[in-house]
C-alpha cells in the first residue's frame, strides 16, 4: 500500500494521543513534532526522519523501522519492545524510563544517545555505534555486544556481567568503570584491560 504522505515534511505539528496503529509511513520527515502518548503500535517506517520530536509515553510496540532516523528525539515512559530497528539512527536522542527489550537492533547508530539506567539485559547490539553515548548505570547483562564501538561512552556503573564483548572497541576508562564479571572478551581486549589497571604482562 502506497503512503499518500510520502516525500512530505511536517514541522511543529501536534500528534499527541493520535492513533496511527498499523500504518505504513515512507520517505516522510517530522521536525519539532509532538507524539506524546500516541498509539504507534505496529507502525512501519521506511526512510522516515524524525528530528527534535517528543515521543514521551508513546506506544511503539511491534513497530518496524528500516532506514529511518530519530535524531535528538526524546523517549520517556515509552514502549519500544517487540519492535525492529534496521539501519536506523537514534543520534543524540534521550531514552529514559522506557521498555525496550525484547527488540531487534540491526546496524543501529546510537552515537550520543542517552541510555542511562535502562534495562537492556540480553539485547543483541552487534556492530552498533555507541560512541559518546550515556551508559551510566545501564544494565546490559548477558547482552551480545560484538564489534560495538564504545569510544568516548560514559560507562560508570554499566553492568556487563556475562555479556559478549569480543571485537568491541573501548577507551581505557571503559575497562575500569564498567562491571565486567563473567564477560567474554578477546586477547586484544584482555591486554587493554590489563594496561587500564596499571598491570604489566611479563614473561
From TrEMBL:
Gene3D superfamilies on file: E3 ubiquitin-protein ligase SopA
Name recorded for this polypeptide: Uncharacterized protein YjbI with pentapeptide repeats
Superkingdom of origin organism: Bacteria
InterPro entries: 5peptide_repeat (IPR001646), Pentapeptide-BTB/POZ_domain (IPR051082)
Species name: Rhodococcoides corynebacterioides
Listed Pfam families: Pentapeptide (PF00805), Pentapeptide_4 (PF13599)
Amino acid at each position: 500500500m502506497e503512503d499518500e504522505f510520502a516525500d512530505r515534511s511536517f514541522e511543529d505539528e501536534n500528534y499527541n494521543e493520535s492513533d496511527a496503529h498499523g500504518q505504513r509511513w515512507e520517505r516522510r520527515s517530522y521536525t519539532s513534532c509532538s507524539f506524546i502518548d500516541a498509539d504507534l503500535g505496529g507502525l512501519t517506517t521506511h526512510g522516515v526522519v524524525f528530528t527534535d520530536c517528543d515521543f514521551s509515553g508513546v506506544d511503539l510496540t511491534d513497530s518496524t523501522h528500516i532506514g529511518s532516523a530519530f535524531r535528538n528525539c526524546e523517549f520517556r515512559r515509552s514502549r519500544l519492545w517487540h519492535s525492529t530497528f534496521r539501519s536506523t539512527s537514534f543520534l543524540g536522542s534521550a531514552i529514559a524510563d522506557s521498555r525496550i527489550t525484547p527488540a531487534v537492533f540491526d546496524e543501529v547508530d546510537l552515537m550520543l544517545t542517552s541510555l542511562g539506567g535502562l534495562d537492556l539485559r540480553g539485547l543483541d547490539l552487534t556492530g552498533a555505534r555507541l560512541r559518546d553515548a550515556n551508559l551510566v548505570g545501564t544494565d546490559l547483562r548477558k547482552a551480545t555486544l560484538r564489534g560495538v564501538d564504545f569510544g568516548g561512552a560514559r560507562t560508570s556503573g554499566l553492568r556487563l556481567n556475562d555479556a559478549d564483548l569480543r571485537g568491541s572497541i573501548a577507551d581505557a576508562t571503559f575497562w575500569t568503570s564498567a562491571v565486567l564479571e563473567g564477560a567474554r572478551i578477546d586477547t586484544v581486549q584482555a591486554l587493554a584491560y590489563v594496561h587500564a589497571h596499571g598491570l604489566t604482562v611479563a614473561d
